[in-house]
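Fold it.
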Amino acid sequence: MNDTTFKRRKNITIALPKGRLLESVLPILTAAGLKPEDEFFDGKSRRLEFDTSDPDVGLIPVKPFDVATFVAFGSADLGLVGADVIHEFGYEEIYIPVDLGLGHCRLSVAATPEVASQPMEHLSHLRIATKYPNLTRNFFAQKGIQAECVKLNGAIELAPKLGLCPYIVDIVTTGNTLKANGLVEMETILEATSRLIVNRNSFKTKSERLGHWITAFQAAVDDKAKAA
């Protein structure tokens, strides 16, 4: 099956995040009634689009930061993505009907203990390494501080050690990675969980079908909460 066939045949496309978050959202996806085809789980597969147990619905696994973009521009009707990504982009084209309650994490400011011990209130400008420049700038602007963001997509914890930036803003789950790299948390910018997002235009034109899946995801979340 080629990509053109997939696009022509599927009425609903769901964007899923690759990596660690995918593992946490798959049980909710299945509980909602959407089981991916076997090849979806084949790490050697080169395909980019996959069938599900519902012939009307297909899946596209993409980088977590791209999920919101695919949905906002209508290339996907639904998406599962962290609130950190949603708030970083702030797309008006996205509707957020369900908190999946998965992937609990926080977006935090961190630095070495020496830097963290110094108050930031007296600063008018600081340099920060992060892959969340919009959230970071907005957070520090509220404090009256201009944040110069150095955009990194990985190994952000190295920035203070190598003298690139004294501060970082990154996602923290357990704090073990920060500790292993000699950093401490200073402040939390955002608490985040994964969410179901919907393209607003798709919701207008496919309201009945998308409404069914929104209800199914919410029911799966509610059942999980009851079983906990």
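Residues 1-8 have pLDDT under 50 and may be disordered.
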